[in-house]
Amino acid sequence: xxxxxxxxxxxxxxxxxxxxxxxxxxxxxxxxxxxxxxxxxxxxxxxxxxxxxxxxxxxxxxxxxxxxxxxxxxxxxxxxxxxxxxxxxxxxxxxxxxxxxxxxxxxxxxxxxxxxxxxxxxxxxxxxxxxxxxxxxxxxxxxxxxxxxxxxxxxxxxxxxxxxxxxxxxxxxxxxxxxxxxxxxxxxxxxxxxxxxxxxxxxxxxxxxxxxxxxxxxxxxxxxxxxxxxxxxxxxxxxxxxxxxxxxxxxxxxxxxxxxxxxxxxxxxxxxxxxxxxxxxxxxxxxxxxxxxxxxxxxxxxxxxxxxxxxxxxxxxxxxxxxxxxxxxxx
Length: 331
Prior knowledge:
- The chain is of the alpha/beta class.
- It has helices spanning 6-13, 27-37, 43-54, 70-73, 83-89, 120-129, 150-169, 188-208, 235-249, 266-277, 292-302, 309-327, and strands at residues 19-23, 63-68, 93-97, 102-104, 112-114, 134-141, 173-180, 217-218, 256-259, 286-290.
């Protein structure tokens, strides 16, 4: 039986050996993914793609929850079941992305705010009635000369806290996602400083609004260099720096930490998760909430063709199993 109260839902999402599938690409984002592999963009192809992933045999062994975009949340599988209902029948919790994307700050170029607070309480009520058990809100944090500015981080932190407050009021577990993005040539030191600053401010705002930390999850980046940086850190260094930053900034009451893959290849995301999992005496469960790092190989294998569904599902399950093993420190 699936859990109903917020604490139990949060614990369920970070259960041993399982992680979260982020299948919450917006219509624009999924079009870009489809374009890369030559799949015609349409709502029906979006539906068929998500159905292929969600119906993979045995996926519930590795996946505890799925984050969906509004379009997907309202779609049905071939048997006429809404996707949230279908996932629940497989003991996978349905989740919903509720932010409406980023806009550039007028005062701080190349830094961003996240929109979507207007009417969010009413949207939460509807999503809860449709079966949503958890939600996600993403804030984008840019690294660079003079970035991130504390002003932009503060505005994003206040929005994340308000979102979390509304989610818990509606009986939905909030996933708080501050992503220090990997775009750029910044060093791992720069990422470490930005991540530390960001988490400090975010938890200050969460505690200011008296968010119940045992009923929320944190979805952060790993501490890693920019994708264009010349020196690449080993998984062991990434793991050590990441866990050290969290020990300094993340309260022990937080129910769990589920990493985003953030510009890493599928193999890198798995290897770095495994290195993090090997570090002992962490106060929180640490798992994964991957999008591209779980899906990209399966999308390429599917290529929009029905005859490729079984092979694509095998590819998807193989990657999910690898991350499940990495979650347990087996790599």
